[in-house]
Design goal:
Layout lengths: L1 E4 L5 H11 L5 E5 L6 H11 L2 E3 L9 E6 L4 E6 L6 H6 L2 H5 L4 E5 L13 E7 L5 E5 L1
Parallel strand pairs: 2-6, 2-7, 5-6
Antiparallel strand pairs: 1-8, 3-4, 4-5, 7-8
Helix pairs in contact: 1-2
The structure holds adenosine-5'-triphosphate (ATP) and magnesium ion (MG).
């Protein structure tokens, strides 16, 4: 799926579209340079999932846990700062992946070999007109 996003206001509709199109997928790995819009899209996805609270995990800086209306958690990882894949293993990254709950991962390239199971690649870039290009694979 290929989406062009002209401004942030469009992201709520984009998030709905993505979740509907990939209704069976729970793990989404985001790729894209700094500022591409990964966090902003993940926040829209969380809104679309009915996230009611936005507490950051006090225990592990690499993962934020949000709660949906339903009580189900949504996990948001940001591996920008990790130097070794072991740091992801140590927070139990693989257990989160197999939890059956939504997992949104920033800087997926840092942990890609831990993602053996199928996951949805979300590749983001910025075009000359500052639009965000999103490719889902
Ligand atoms: N679809 C969009 N249209 C216009 N501006 C956007 C869009 N998405 C994000 N932005 C803006 O781009 C900036 C960077 O966005 P964001 O923090 O989501 O990037 P990121 O990919 O998560 O970066 P990092 O790799 O540093 O975590 C923010 O100021 C945000 O408001
Ligand atoms: Mg970010």
């Amino acid at each position: 799926m290929h989406i062009i996003v002209h401004n942030e206001q469009e992201l709520d509709a984009v998030a709905q579209t993505i979740l509907a199109q990939y209704a069976n997928q729970r793990v989404f790995g985001f790729f894209g340079e700094m500022g591409a819009g990964k966090t902003t899209l993940i926040k829209a996805l969380c809104r679309a999932l009915g996230v009611v609270s936005v507490p950051t995990s006090p225990t592990f800086a690499l993962v934020n846990e949000y709660l949906r209306h339903s009580g189900d958690p949504v996990y948001h990882f940001d591996f920008y700062r990790i130097e070794e894949m072991d740091e992801a293993r140590q927070i139990g990254f693989e257990e989160y992946l197999y939890s059956g709950h939504y997992c949104f991962i920033e800087w997926t390239e840092k942990v890609e070999s831990l993602l053996q199971e199928s996951y949805t690649r979300v590749e983001m870039s910025i075009d000359a007109m500052h639009c965000r290009i999103i490719n889902l694979i």
